[in-house]
Amino acid sequence: PAHKLGFLDYQVAVAGVAGGIARGVIEAPFDRIKVSRQVEQPWTMRTLFQGAGVTIWRNSVLFCSFSIYRDVIPPLIPGGLGPFWLGALCSNLAWLTVWPLDVIKSQRQSGLFPNHTTWSLLCEATRRGIL
Questions:
Q1: pLDDT at res. 9
Q2: Could you tell me where the DSSP H helices lie in the chain?
Q3: For the chain: N or C, fewer Cβ within 10 A?
Q4: Which of 113, 107, 121 is nearest to 35 (CA)?
Q5: Cα maximum dimension of the chain
Q6: Euclidean distance between CA atoms 54 and 39, whole angstroms
Protein backbone atom coordinates (compact mmCIF):
# COMPACT_ATOMS: atom_id res chain seq x y z
CA PRO A 1 0.00 0.00 0.00
CA ALA A 2 0.98 3.62 -0.52
CA HIS A 3 1.23 4.27 3.23
CA LYS A 4 3.93 1.62 3.71
CA LEU A 5 7.62 2.43 3.63
CA GLY A 6 9.08 -1.05 3.32
CA PHE A 7 8.07 -2.80 6.53
CA LEU A 8 6.95 0.41 8.23
CA ASP A 9 3.42 1.77 8.07
CA TYR A 10 4.14 5.46 8.52
CA GLN A 11 0.50 6.14 9.48
CA VAL A 12 0.94 3.96 12.54
CA ALA A 13 4.16 5.76 13.46
CA VAL A 14 2.49 9.17 13.03
CA ALA A 15 -0.45 8.01 15.15
CA GLY A 16 2.03 6.97 17.85
CA VAL A 17 3.66 10.39 17.78
CA ALA A 18 0.24 12.11 17.95
CA GLY A 19 -0.75 9.95 20.92
CA GLY A 20 2.54 10.76 22.63
CA ILE A 21 2.04 14.48 22.13
CA ALA A 22 -1.48 14.34 23.55
CA ARG A 23 -0.40 12.31 26.55
CA GLY A 24 2.67 14.51 27.12
CA VAL A 25 0.62 17.69 27.24
CA ILE A 26 -1.71 16.16 29.83
CA GLU A 27 0.99 14.34 31.79
CA ALA A 28 3.66 17.07 31.94
CA PRO A 29 2.29 19.19 34.82
CA PHE A 30 1.54 16.16 36.98
CA ASP A 31 4.95 14.69 36.28
CA ARG A 32 6.58 18.01 37.13
CA ILE A 33 4.87 18.04 40.52
CA LYS A 34 5.91 14.42 41.16
CA VAL A 35 9.57 15.05 40.33
CA SER A 36 9.60 18.29 42.35
CA ARG A 37 8.31 16.41 45.36
CA GLN A 38 10.90 13.65 44.87
CA VAL A 39 13.80 16.09 44.95
CA GLU A 40 12.15 18.31 47.57
CA GLN A 41 12.08 21.37 45.33
CA PRO A 42 9.19 23.83 45.33
CA TRP A 43 6.97 24.18 42.29
CA THR A 44 4.64 26.97 41.29
CA MET A 45 2.00 27.44 38.64
CA ARG A 46 4.64 29.26 36.57
CA THR A 47 6.95 26.23 36.61
CA LEU A 48 4.24 23.63 36.04
CA PHE A 49 5.30 23.03 32.45
CA GLN A 50 9.04 23.04 33.14
CA GLY A 51 10.42 20.05 31.26
CA ALA A 52 7.22 19.66 29.23
CA GLY A 53 9.11 19.66 25.94
CA VAL A 54 11.22 16.66 26.84
CA THR A 55 8.18 14.93 28.38
CA ILE A 56 6.28 15.36 25.12
CA TRP A 57 9.33 14.23 23.17
CA ARG A 58 9.77 11.18 25.40
CA ASN A 59 6.11 10.18 25.10
CA SER A 60 6.11 10.68 21.34
CA VAL A 61 9.12 8.41 20.92
CA LEU A 62 7.62 5.90 23.38
CA PHE A 63 4.28 5.61 21.62
CA CYS A 64 5.81 5.70 18.14
CA SER A 65 8.40 3.02 18.94
CA PHE A 66 5.76 0.79 20.53
CA SER A 67 3.66 1.10 17.37
CA ILE A 68 6.64 0.32 15.16
CA TYR A 69 7.70 -2.66 17.26
CA ARG A 70 4.11 -3.90 17.18
CA ASP A 71 4.21 -3.91 13.37
CA VAL A 72 7.78 -5.18 12.92
CA ILE A 73 8.12 -7.98 15.48
CA PRO A 74 5.31 -10.43 14.57
CA PRO A 75 6.76 -11.48 11.20
CA LEU A 76 10.17 -12.02 12.83
CA ILE A 77 8.97 -14.66 15.30
CA PRO A 78 8.13 -18.04 13.77
CA GLY A 79 4.80 -19.23 15.12
CA GLY A 80 4.08 -15.74 16.42
CA LEU A 81 3.34 -14.56 19.91
CA GLY A 82 0.07 -14.27 21.77
CA PRO A 83 -1.28 -10.76 22.37
CA PHE A 84 -0.02 -10.68 25.97
CA TRP A 85 3.57 -11.62 25.12
CA LEU A 86 3.65 -9.41 22.04
CA GLY A 87 2.42 -6.44 24.09
CA ALA A 88 4.92 -7.21 26.85
CA LEU A 89 7.82 -7.46 24.43
CA CYS A 90 6.89 -4.32 22.48
CA SER A 91 6.26 -2.22 25.58
CA ASN A 92 9.57 -3.24 27.16
CA LEU A 93 11.49 -2.55 23.95
CA ALA A 94 9.74 0.82 23.65
CA TRP A 95 10.67 1.69 27.23
CA LEU A 96 14.30 0.70 26.64
CA THR A 97 14.25 2.95 23.58
CA VAL A 98 13.13 6.02 25.55
CA TRP A 99 14.81 5.36 28.88
CA PRO A 100 17.62 7.90 28.24
CA LEU A 101 14.98 10.56 27.53
CA ASP A 102 13.21 9.69 30.77
CA VAL A 103 16.42 10.23 32.74
CA ILE A 104 16.90 13.63 31.10
CA LYS A 105 13.20 14.50 31.55
CA SER A 106 13.49 13.98 35.29
CA GLN A 107 16.66 16.06 35.43
CA ARG A 108 14.96 18.91 33.56
CA GLN A 109 11.88 18.76 35.77
CA SER A 110 13.86 18.60 39.00
CA GLY A 111 14.85 22.25 38.78
CA LEU A 112 18.40 21.27 39.75
CA PHE A 113 19.82 21.97 36.27
CA PRO A 114 18.45 25.43 35.38
CA ASN A 115 21.15 26.42 32.88
CA HIS A 116 21.34 23.12 31.00
CA THR A 117 19.63 22.24 27.75
CA THR A 118 18.12 18.83 27.16
CA TRP A 119 20.91 18.10 24.69
CA SER A 120 23.67 19.11 27.13
CA LEU A 121 22.14 16.92 29.85
CA LEU A 122 21.93 13.99 27.43
CA CYS A 123 25.57 14.45 26.37
CA GLU A 124 26.71 14.77 29.99
CA ALA A 125 24.79 11.67 31.08
CA THR A 126 26.31 9.72 28.20
CA ARG A 127 29.82 10.97 29.00
CA ARG A 128 29.44 10.07 32.70
CA GLY A 129 28.11 6.61 31.86
CA ILE A 130 24.68 7.16 33.42
CA LEU A 131 22.99 5.94 30.25
A1: 79
A2: 10-38, 52-72, 83-110, 118-128
A3: N
A4: 107
A5: 53
A6: 18
